[in-house]
Amino acid sequence: MEDPKPGTDPAASPGGATTGSSEDEVAIPDTLPVLPVRNTVLFPGLIAPLTIGRPSSRKLLEESLPHSKIIGIFTQKDAATEEPGPEDIYHVGVAARVLKLLRQPDDTLVIVVQALERIAFVRALVVAPFLRAEIRLLKSTTPPADNLEFTATVEELRETALKLVEMTLDPPDQAAAVIRNLRDPGQLADFMAGSLNLPVEQKQPLLEELDVARRVRAVLKHVAAQLEIARIQQKIQKDVTSAITDQQRRAFLREQVRAIQKELGEDDGGVEQQIEELRQRLQAAGPPEPVLQQAERELRRLQHLHPASPEYAVVVSYLETLAELPWNKLTEDNLDLDRAQKILDRDHFDLEKVKRRLIEYLAVRKLNPQGHGPILCFCGPPGVGKTSLGQSIADALGRKFARVSLGGVHDEAEIRGHRRTYIGSMPGRIIQEIRRAGSRNPVLMLDEIDKLGSDFRGDPASALLEVLDPRQNHAFVDHYLDVPFDLSQVMFICTANVMDTVPAPLRDRMEVIELHGYTDREKLEIARRYLVKRQLQEHGLKNGQCRFTQPALRRIIQDYTREAGVRELERQIAAICRHVAARVARGEITSFTVTPQQVETILGPPRYIHETRLTSGRPGVVTGLAWTPTGGEILHIEALAYPGKGNILLTGQIGDVMRESAQAALSLVKSRARQLGIPTDAFKDMDLHIHVPAGAVPKDGPSAGVAMFTAIASLFSNQPVRPDIAMTGEITLRGIVLPIGGLKEKSLAALRAGIRTVIIPKHNEKDLAELPPEVKQQIQFHPVETVDEVLALALKTGRRAAASTPTRTRRKATASPKPAAISSNP
């Protein structure tokens, strides 16, 4: 940020009246780096300090000053713009010479500049990393010396300025001497224009005025107005002083405010009226008695504070916050279960488990309106509809909806608020959202709860423990309010992508509902029912102007997206809609049907290469299954032996857990060497290399043990592994197969890759009931308890174990490529 140095009025400093001709001796180039400044208008001849904090401005100084001390300074039209472009600045500014550069302890820069000449911004040459422009010098026109009217106006300006200096309580040093000694009318006008306390909107026209006569008259008008204000202030001061007696000194400041308001015709009762209005608002809000007592104490303090003091503003803001909170405002719940079911079905496809749980919640509320419901947490990959479910729940209940994004929050005050000892303190996000909702029982969604941080400012996750406990939050105390507020009627809904990063005490307070990724069939239905309609509406297309065929949508899903949710799918549909909208707007077509061939024409070649099953079996190569945040994937685990000293090498950016699985698998194979028909000395003189392809993709997790064991056993026994089979599971040194997570995602990955036989742990057999129907119909699952059963199924020459009970399935599917990061177990 570039502003005048705090506490300094650059135009009023004696150095600001540079009357010499030093600026005439400086050659001003035709192109200059442009420094935008906020709330400051510099006039030629003035010297001013500027504080530099913006990165682009720092870059400008670092690269330009070693070559030239001349820069262009232009004022921003809007001080809030962080990175102004050519259209965000006034096009008349000054060329200035940088006299000094100081580096501050807070890593900002302070430069002292001398304004030289008026310049005009002609055109931008470079925009980044900072603005450089072609400029043009502007010359002022001065009336001839024998123009008596102009001479009289100049002298009137000089006299009025001297009177203003005399009436100023703290005039700048030698200001009167500078005004008397300035002979050039243009310099005198510029000096006074820079000295006046005027907004940018009034100063900028004075800078742009090149006719010295008109400039002098305009400045004279402003100086006269400020002189009149100074006279009125003196009169007010005298009136107040005469009304004060020894018994009234304690009310001095209050009397002065009244006198100012009376002079301006704005006498509206002052502090007493404001206090009375606050008291009435607080009583109308109906807070509990302890809150009213606290508010009354603050109102009594307010009577003894000066309205201009910072503490006065803090107390007023606090009382206004208390008055605006919905202490007794509750929306009536709509407990029509059939209506709620229709709303949930209207907004979301599938998610039957989540919908059933929400209907159960409404049923309990209907039977026990005073009960405290659970804290729900929707956990699942991005894009499956967690956040939008909150709005649907609020619509179904007839409640207000509020959302707090917790991603990246690392300050406890964001939850509990700031204490009122600080200027600018405010309540926490919870209280703020309830105030905006205007109801004490909204549906409040705490989004991305798994991405909370913590640092020296506190731990927001710990601050949420009280908020998310129905037995404690009836008396939640925000640090700013410092009085209890009842949160027990708020329906809190949290969302998270994974629960691993959520602290255990916080996780214990929530009922976690898993939302799994969508199958290709579910994505197709979501696209048909929701996404296509929404994108057609957003792009101004009617149903008849753009129609998506089912094969086209299936092509987009399979070849252009790789996700558990549907966000990328909607983006690809939007890209096609934009293409069609452009052709319709040009009049090239009136209607368009999107086919698989048109998809490739518009979106380009397929973005993802499908990972398919192995075409043939060979020793040491096994297909494993992995879980990722964007869905399941298949992993080809390869093992290779070569002469060595019995060492093991693991590659493919494998994490520590998978390394341990590989070590355990090797040990288990060595212990069963005789049973597997492997010579006992086969490991002594051979090195083992285990590789998981896609080495740039990190992989870790505990469910790759079965696949690694099978790869090593297949390699050393020289028995090929069936190419149409995939497996998942962890192993122990006793050869027991342990359960895994993410079975749905892994089975979907196998289906897409064309694999029809999957080996799973016996303990995961219960999870088969939750798999989509198309998966259970097309994949044959083999639950196993020991690695012996795995080998009997996986090795081509192995004996099928009688203990395995397959589930028959049939269907054709496509594959999905690898994501950016892979974990073999969620």
Keywords:
ATP-binding, Rossmann fold, 5-stranded parallel β-sheet, Archaeosine Trna-guanine Transglycosylase, Chain: A, domain 4, 5 domains, alpha/beta, 5-stranded mixed barrel, 26 helices, single chain, 39% helix, Lon protease, 17% strand, elongated, ATP hydrolysis activity, 826 residues, disordered C terminus
Task: Give an overview of the whole structure.
- This protein is α/β, with parallel strands linked by helices and 826 residues long.
- The protein has 5 domains: 3-137, Roll (Archaeosine Trna-guanine Transglycosylase, Chain: A, domain 4); 270-324; 337-514, 3-Layer(aba) Sandwich (Rossmann fold), CATH 3.40.50.300; 520-603, Helicase, Ruva Protein, domain 3, CATH 1.10.8.60; 621-823, Ribosomal Protein S5, domain 2.
- Strand 17 and strand 18 form a beta hairpin.
- Helix 4 (185-195) packs across helix 6 (212-243).
- The model is unreliable at 4-24 and 799-826 (pLDDT under 50).
List the helices and strands and how they pair.
Layout: E1 3-4, E2 31-37, E3 47-52, H1 55-64, E4 70-75, E5 92-103, E6 109-126, E7 132-137, H2 148-167, H3 175-181, H4 185-195, H5 200-208, H6 212-243, H7 252-264, H8 270-285, H9 289-303, H10 310-324, H11 337-347, H12 352-367, E8 376-379, H13 386-397, E9 401-405, H14 413-416, H15 429-437, E10 443-447, H16 460-467, E11 476-477, E12 484-485, E13 491-496, H17 504-508, E14 511-514, H18 520-538, E15 546-548, H19 550-559, H20 567-586, E16 592-594, H21 596-603, E17 621-628, E18 631-643, E19 648-651, H22 656-671, E20 686-691, E21 699-700, H23 705-717, E22 725-727, E23 730-731, E24 737-738, H24 743-752, E25 757-761, H25 773-778, E26 780-784, H26 787-794, E27 822-823
Parallel strand pairs: 2-4, 8-13, 8-14, 9-10, 10-13, 15-16, 19-20, 21-27, 22-25, 25-26
Antiparallel strand pairs: 1-3, 2-7, 3-6, 4-5, 5-6, 6-7, 11-12, 17-18, 18-20, 23-24
Helix pairs in contact: 2-3, 2-4, 2-6, 4-6, 6-7, 8-9, 8-10, 9-10, 11-12, 11-13, 18-19, 18-20, 19-21, 22-23, 23-26
